[in-house]
Amino acid sequence: MLKxxxxxxLPLFFFDAQAQQRTIRPGELWPDNHGVHxxxxxxxxxxxxxxYYWYGEHKAEHTSAALVGITCYSSKDLVNWTYRGxxxxxxxxxxxxxxxGCTIERPKVVYCPATxxxxxxxxxxxxxxxxxxxxxxxxxxxxxxxxxxxxxxxRVNPYCYPANWTDTDRxxxxxxxxxxxxxxxxxPWRDAIRQGLFLKREKDGGQMARDMTLFVDDDGRAYHLFSxxxxxxxxxxxxxxxxxxxxxxYWRIAPxxxxxxxxxxxxxxxxxxxxxxxxxxxxxxxxxxSADSLTGExxxxxxxxxxxxxxxxxxxQGTFVLPVAGRPEAFIFMADVWRPKHPIDARYVWLPIxxxxxxxxxxxxxxxxxxxxxxx
Length: 376
Prior knowledge:
Number of helices: 4
Strand content: 35-45%
Oligomer: single chain
Order of helices and strands: HEEEEEEEEHHHEEEEEEEEEEEEE
């Protein structure tokens, strides 16, 4: 009998211990309200009516394929998170875009005031096709926790040239012949990429869309930023007023620069972009860009990371920069430490962003508290 009472009381003691958590410990296991490591990888955060909602990829033990879907957690303090369930489940129907076993990556959610809907975008790869589909997918919900209704997926902005191209740029792109650039990574090939070789290749069917984020500017306009052109060039694509379609207006950023994992935020009127290089699951040194206008021109700066493993982004890869509600100077850099052989055990590196000479700095800390960090 005593053993049974102890077993029944044990969860109560455990949850009480969880309620006392006050700090973020980058790279360590991060338990939710059930004491289970948070399973929301490649994620993003929505702040809505006093609550933060964390959306991410549900990872399995031995595969990064989507077997469950997109999970949701909620928090008031950014430290203690409550599991809110699967916001968008995979589909059991064979042939569905989001069939169980497809690839779902980097989900992000924004709220659309015009429709009062929550809009979810994510990178989608069809089951059994590797990374060939390179699609953007969208879903909507009436509540931040879902359930989200899947709408569609596809390539982005077919038949459209970049909005930051001149007539000369378009004419030059039209003359490019892929047969003349069969050998990759040569100087002529790189020049052709910058001039739009792969953009021309995909123009009629729509541009490739992989690693991504969403950004809503101060004027209420929403944008979809993603790695395109075989991960060689970033595209910043304007969304419709209901945030569920692309308008056809988009801008190329860092053509030929091989950037993925984009994160975007605004500080004192300037736009900042932190990305990574393309090295698969292995970490690399973060890149940083800034612009006075969201549509460019963009200037590259050294990596913002400081401290142990700074040249490998602390062993992680960025996924989102979170503006802390009510604190205009406060931002959190969110990154994932991928573990492809044991995906469910991937860890989170969340670190505060400070500013030196007006530039973002992400410095390693073993432990820190969002409730006190910006108070001194």
